[in-house]
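Lecture notes, part 5. Sequence design as translation. It can be helpful to think of inverse folding as translation between two languages: the language of shapes and the language of residues. The source text, in C-alpha cells, appears below.
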C-alpha cells in the first residue's frame, strides 16, 4: 500500500438528479476506475456522485480511502454514505474549483449548469476531459474545442471501459500544472518598442527568447524584457538585491547590471561585451564561477550551458538574469554544483533536463546509469569536484 499516495485521482462529475441510465453509467465508471488503479473524487452528494462512489466500492481492488468527496457545506456528514474521505469546504458551488484543481482528469456524465462550470474550469486548468452518457453535455460538447488556450478538444466516448482506457493512454500528456489565469503576453515587437522608448534605442536586434521574456542587443547594451507576470514586483526586488550584491563583490565572473520596473515593465540591461558560447567541459572555468557566486552569496537553479558565455579574459559569465537566482543555502548550493557538473559532461544531451530534475530530490547521480555511465564513479568524481569549490 506504500504507493497509494501516487495514484492518479479522476473526478467523476454529473447531475445530482441523474436519470437511471446516467446512474448506471456512473456506477460502471466508478468501478472501472478503481479496477484500473485510480482513485476517484466527486462532489460528494447524490445522483452521479453517489453512483460513481458506489461503483468504486464494488471493485475487488477497492481499499478504504479510494473515494474522496468535496462537499459544498461545512458538515462532513452531509454527503452520501459511500464517500471514504469527506472534505467539507463551506464554499458552496465554488467547491467545483477545488475538485477540478485536485484531479488529474475529469469524466463528465450528462449534467447541467454545475457540470458545465466544472468542465470550463477543467479546461482552463488544462485537465483531460471525457464526456459520456445519454443526455446533458455529452451531446452538446462532441469534439468541441472550448477556446484558443488549448489545441486539443473534449473527448466523447461510449463506455466506461473506453473512458478508462483513454485516460491510461493519454493522461500523461496533461501533466503540466495550472499556474493561474494567464495574462496576455507582449510579443517581441511590443517589447522592442518599449525598450526603444525607454532607452532611446532605434535598432534593437532580438537575440534570444524564453519562458521569462525576450533578449535584445542594442547599440551598446543587452536588454531582457520580462513577460507580464504576477510576481513582477517580487522579481524586481530580488534582481535589485542581486545587482547590488554583485557591485559590492566586484567579481570578474559577473558583470554589473541594472534593473528597472516602470509602468508595469520589468527590464534588465548590461553593457555588451565580446565573448564566445560555452559548450560544456572546461571544469576549471566552472569551478571559478561557482566559487565566485558562493562568495557573492547567491545561487542559480537554472545552470545550463546556453545561459553562459566565456569572455575575452577566459571567465565563465552567466548572461541570463531572472527568477533562477536566489540567496544561497547549503542545500541549494550543492544542487547547483551538481547541475554544473552535469553541464560539464552532458551540456546538450537529449536527457539533460531529466538529469537536472533528478538533482531536485536526490543527492546522487543514479539517473546517469540510464545512458551507460557508472553512477557511483560519477558521484565520486563529483565529490572531488565539489571539494575543489568549497575548500578554498
Amino acid at each position: 500500500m506504500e504507493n497509494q499516495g501516487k495514484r492518479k485521482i479522476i473526478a467523476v462529475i454529473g447531475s445530482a438528479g441523474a436519470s437511471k441510465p446516467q446512474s448506471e453509467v456512473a456506477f460502471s465508471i466508478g468501478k472501472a476506475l478503481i479496477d484500473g488503479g485510480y482513485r476517484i473524487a466527486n462532489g460528494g452528494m447524490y445522483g452521479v456522485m453517489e453512483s460513481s462512489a458506489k461503483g468504486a466500492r464494488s471493485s475487488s481492488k477497492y481499499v478504504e480511502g479510494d473515494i474522496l468527496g468535496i462537499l459544498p457545506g461545512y458538515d462532513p456528514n452531509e454527503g452520501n454514505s459511500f464517500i471514504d474521505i469527506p472534505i467539507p469546504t463551506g464554499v458552496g458551488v465554488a467547491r467545483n474549483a477545488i475538485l477540478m484543481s485536485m484531479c488529474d482528469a475529469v469524466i463528465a456524465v450528462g449534467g447541467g449548469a454545475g457540470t458545465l462550470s466544472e468542465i470550463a474550469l477543467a479546461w482552463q486548468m488544462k485537465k483531460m476531459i471525457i464526456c459520456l452518457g445519454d443526455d446533458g453535455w455529452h451531446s452538446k460538447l462532441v469534439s468541441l474545442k472550448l477556446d484558443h488556450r488549448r489545441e486539443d478538444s473534449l473527448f466523447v466516448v461510449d463506455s466506461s471501459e473506453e473512458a478508462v482506457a483513454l485516460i491510461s493512454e493519454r493522461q500523461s500528456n496533461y501533466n503540466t500544472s495550472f499556474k493561474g489565469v494567464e495574462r496576455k503576453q507582449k510579443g517581441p515587437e511590443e517589447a522592442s518598442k518599449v525598450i526603444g522608448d525607454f532607452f532611446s534605442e532605434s535598432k534593437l536586434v532580438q537575440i534570444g527568447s524564453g519562458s521569462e521574456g525576450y533578449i535584445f542587443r542594442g547599440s551598446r547594451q543587452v536588454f531582457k524584457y520580462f513577460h507580464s507576470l504576477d510576481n513582477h514586483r517580487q522579481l524586481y526586488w530580488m534582481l535589485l538585491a542581486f545587482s547590488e550584491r554583485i557591485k559590492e563583490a566586484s567579481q570578474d565572473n559577473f558583470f554589473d547590471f541594472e534593473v528597472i520596473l516602470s509602468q508595469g515593465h520589468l527590464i534588465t540591461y548590461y553593457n555588451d561585451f565580446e565573448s564566445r558560447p560555452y559548450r560544456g567541459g572546461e571544469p576549471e572555468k566552472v569551478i571559478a564561477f561557482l566559487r565566485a557566486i558562493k562568495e557573492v552569496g547567491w545561487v542559480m537553479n537554472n545552470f545550463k550551458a546556453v545561459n553562459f558565455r566565456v569572455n575575452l579574459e577566459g571567465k565563465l559569465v552567466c548572461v541570463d538574469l531572472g527568477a533562477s537566482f536566489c540567496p544561497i543555502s547549503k542545500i541549494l548550493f550543492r544542487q547547483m554544483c551538481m547541475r554544473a557538473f552535469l553541464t560539464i559532461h552532458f551540456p546538450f544531451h537529449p536527457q539533460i533536463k531529466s538529469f537536472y530534475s533528478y538533482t531536485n530530490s536526490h543527492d546522487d547521480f543514479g539517473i546517469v546509469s540510464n545512458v551507460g555511465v557508472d553512477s557511483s564513479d560519477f558521484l565520486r568524481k563529483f565529490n572531488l569536484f565539489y571539494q575543489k569549490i568549497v575548500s578554498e
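The translated text above is only one of many valid answers, since several sequences can fold into similar shapes. The two ends are 48 Å apart (CA to CA).
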